[in-house]
Structures are given as structure tokens and as C-alpha cells.
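note to self — DONT lose this again. spent like an hour looking for the file last time. sequence + predicted structure for the chain T wanted, 72 res
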Amino acid sequence: MTGTPVANDIRRLRFEHGEMTQQALADACGVTRQTIIALEAGRYAPSLELAFRIARAFSVGVEDVFHWQPLA
């Protein structure tokens, strides 16, 4: 399997928050830029803790960042 059914709006949220860079988000969440890249590409589903960290970085709820999208 190459994808995950956990879709996200991280890229959109980054741009809505002052065009935040992937590195800035990674720093705010305590992960690497490569992790953010994999999340945005849908190749990685975050841990619950990381999902909360990302949501908190944007001052939104987890449901505003992540949603379930079953693989076809």
C-alpha cells in the first residue's frame, strides 16, 4: 500500500497561516521536514500525538486538519 486513508489539509492550512513553510511547521511540531512532506503527500498517517501537535500549530481542531477518506 502506498497511501493512507487519512487525508489532510496541511498544505492549505500552511498557506492560510502566512504561507508557513514546511520547515516552520516541522519545527513547531518537533518533527522533520521530511515528515511534513510525507504527510502532505498522503504517504504517512500521523500518530494521534502528532495530529494534535499539527492542529495546535494552526489553532484548529484535529478534525479541521485530518479526515478519513477510504482508499478505493
